[in-house]
Amino acid sequence: MPGDGVLLAAPAAAEGYGEADRDIVCDVVIVGTGPGGASVARVLSAAGAKVVLLEEGPPESRFARNQGDVMRYHMQEGGAMVAAGRAYMPIASGRGVGGGTLVNSAMAWRAPDHVLNGWVELLGDERYGAKALAPLYDQLTELLGVWPTRPEISGKNNDLIVRGVRALGLEGGYVPRATPGCVGCGVCYFGCPSGGKASMNLNLLVEATRAGARIVADTKVDTVLVEGGRVVGVSGRMFHPDTRVPGGAVRVRATRTVLAAGGIGTPRLLHHAGLAERLGPAVGKGLHVHPGNAVLGICDEPIEMWKGATQGAYFHVDELPGVLPHTFSAPPEVCLGMLAPPGPEMKKAIDVLPYLCGLIVMVSDKGEGTVGAHPDGRADIRYEFSDEDVERTKKGMYWAAKVLLAGGAHTLLAPVHGVERTHTAEDLADQLSRRTLEDFMLYAAHPMSSCRMGRDPVTSVVRPDGRAHTLEGLYIADSSVFPTSLGVNPSLTTMALATAIAQGLARTG
Ligand SMILES: Cc1cc2nc3c(=O)[nH]c(=O)nc-3n(C[C@H](O)[C@H](O)[C@H](O)COP(=O)(O)OP(=O)(O)OC[C@H]3O[C@@H](n4cnc5c(N)ncnc54)[C@H](O)[C@@H]3O)c2cc1C
Ligand code: SF4
Fold first, then answer.
1. Is the pTM of this model over 0.90?
2. Dist. CA 77–CA 219, nearest whole Å
3. Ligand 2: which residues within 6 Å by Cβ?
């Protein structure tokens, strides 16, 4: 039933900053506590392994309803990661015990069958096929309390989109979300003040710690320990969550080391730790990100897009496979930045804010990027757009405009340089047809595929069971192992894949 999902009230216990060094010995050390790391910890702790998780971010939620605090405490690299290329694109990744699930909108999709079955062909391994993963998806959706966004908490932005989708007879509606106790406060990107979102610190990590797993937070891992051709653990340092003053060293020796630092974090760590060459040419290659661009509408009645389930509606058109437009929602200050430059125009824009509705057009990208590391440890991200993705974004924006108008908007605006406000989707499409990639205001929050699993050590970093091709004792289990772009928001599939990898590990002892 809606609202009846399993919600574990008390967050998983985690240790935080300290000045003393910590030397730990365990069976499995996991770097990162997002969907990948949490899933591995849950399975292996239940199987009796002594598990330790290390997490760069804070041990507990440091949320406040302001962008500055979220960036500081809960976004990797202070929310300032940018992919460089023909266009510059911000890349967002969460940070803290729970990883991306702390700040994400909790849309919980299963991967499309054709994507998973394509993986089976690429990997020559049945375990990631749609049929094989179905029981894992079932188990996870039940555990997290996934349910389509309920109209009583959806809010006007989502309702308008669903109205437009239905009026046009498109496939779509309310999105399934991992939010069993959502009250529709609309601030998922700041964290969940009600505890209604099924972030990893409230479920999988609680199970893991109850089974004996230890979480050490405020700890940035910078070294992977290798002895005699085998990975034997990791080390790093604690940093004070407020002052960033360095604290004690943390050294963990383990039989198995699992990297789950995410689509940026895992290759960044391998490059920074000087292990990339040893692991082959595929480390950090083949990055996909699901780039997206918003389309906004202005309505006669107040919508207040920051109220209601943060991102709770979607649609799909058959002529655009891999394009998934879904609700755009952002705090007023972010919307304002899209509407007008500082000056008198901004005053007018403030008046418009409550009347905005929006969709973001997310594309399963054919473009690819790379992730390396700057000498100071920050990610060096490059990304090359494919022209086809730009064209699909433009077409998706046309359909998004149609949906917003059919749902009740009277005016359209797109955060694209040189595109004027308009009242028809056709005119928007015409204006977009003259714009180039550099004009768009793109954003991406789904880095993946940057340390792929595969059969060939030249094109992949780990085998289909998550084991590194060229170094014993090292495993990867997060969104970086996806063999291709996914096409839907990746949390649930990251959990399913990491669970499958961990079950394999548990079987092999
Ligand atoms: C704003 C936003 C909205 C999103 N919305 C959705 C959504 O609605 N639905 C959905 O399915 N997905 C969504 N996503 C994406 C989703 O959250 C990610 O795909 C998912 O969290 C990836 O899981 P992961 O385990 O691979 O890595 P992450 O969740 O990124 O976890 C990696 C963890 O490793 C830690 N780490 C990194 N480097 C180190 C290091 N050197 N030492 C120690 N720790 C380290 C990080 O702090 C982080 O906690 C969203 C993401 C963002 C940012
Ligand atoms: S909309 Fe509010 S209550 Fe619902 S999951 Fe997001 S933050 Fe939590």
1. yes
2. 14
3. 106, 179, 182-188, 192, 194, 196-197, 309-310
